[in-house]
Design goal:
Distance between the termini: 25 Å
Structural class: alpha+beta
Order of helices and strands: EEEEHHEEEEHEE
Strand order of the largest sheet: 1-8-6-3
Length: about 180
């Protein structure tokens, strides 16, 4: 089951039931306008903080010069140092928020995690998807498993068999026994 990691409206479903897709192929696109706006806001906030940090550094330098001339109290220098530290902390937080926004934007396109068969479509275009909303059911074509029930008395015989196969529609498919539970 492929589901969303973010809240967004389903914008486009790129596949149909029965399609076989390669790993990495786009399956569902979510409308991520809100997430892109947050990313832009964070970029702008970072630019603003960088400008404020430059100004705070210049103020601190001027304060240091005035302090050497004994034209200003040491308290003023401490305030300037503190203001610069606050701005640097805000910048660090903004970088984290930008990173989170970029992750969310990256989650707007759901791609196939493996070579797969689309088994079921559980969402539709225009549907608002919350975190965890099922979008598609897929099967890993490289990791197929067949399970069956047998009688206890047949378990040893099955484990010792030279060849095990699955027959469907007149075709035989060889199997490898993984486990008996």
């Amino acid at each position: 089951t492929l589901s969303t990691e973010i809240q967004a409206r389903v914008g486009k479903i790129h596949v149909r039931v029965g399609d076989i897709v390669e790993k990495g192929k786009p399956l569902v696109s979510l409308d991520c306008s809100d997430y892109r706006l947050r990313q832009t806001e964070n970029d702008a906030r970072i630019e603003s903080l960088r400008a404020q940090i430059e100004l705070a550094k210049k103020r601190l330098e001027r304060t240091e010069e005035l302090l050497k001339k004994q034209s200003i109290a040491e308290e003023m220098r401490d305030e300037r140092i503190s203001a610069l530290a606050v701005l640097n902390a805000d910048l660090k937080a903004s970088h984290s928020q930008l990173k989170a926004a970029k992750l969310d934007v990256g989650r707007c396109l759901i791609s196939s995690p493996f070579h797969a068969l689309i088994v079921e479509r559980t969402s539709s275009v225009g549907q608002f998807a919350r975190v965890g909303t099922s979008l598609l059911e897929i099967v890993d074509l490289d990791q197929l498993e067949v399970s069956g029930q047998i009688f206890n008395r047949d378990a040893l015989q099955l484990a010792a068999a030279d060849g095990i196969f699955f027959e469907f529609d007149g075709e035989r498919y060889p199997l490898t026994l993984r486990t008996i539970v």
